[in-house]
Amino acid sequence: MLIHFPSALFPMELVLCCIYFFTGQLSFGQAAFYTMAGGVVLGWVAAIFGAMDLIKIPTDKPETMKKALLHGSINVTVVIVYTVLAYSLYKVYPNFPVPKLALLIAKFCVVCFMIVGNFIGGSLVLKDKVGIEK
Prior knowledge:
The chain is mainly alpha-helical. It has helices at residues 4-23, 26-54, 62-90, 101-126. The longest helix has 29 residues, at 26-54.
């Protein structure tokens, strides 16, 4: 259940950043920061529980392990990127600069990357039954 929070908070942060970009109202920038911070914290918690599921994959299922490692690599990369972004904003808290268009495009690409990782994760749960108690 933990993965649903960063999966929702990171796209919401992008939406709030876009609103801040177009309106210049600092409250949207602050809301984006808090949304990002929540996504980062819960993303790391989800990564810990995902690692616990990873070590439970039987060694006789190498394709499932490859898929799980790809999923984990993608999503941990996303959380790392957002951790760096959150830290850079934390240094200027509470007066956040209006984001540049290039940053918004980069965040959009990271969110798309996360969606691919989540699709692979969904396949792990639904097809390979990873993380499901028997």
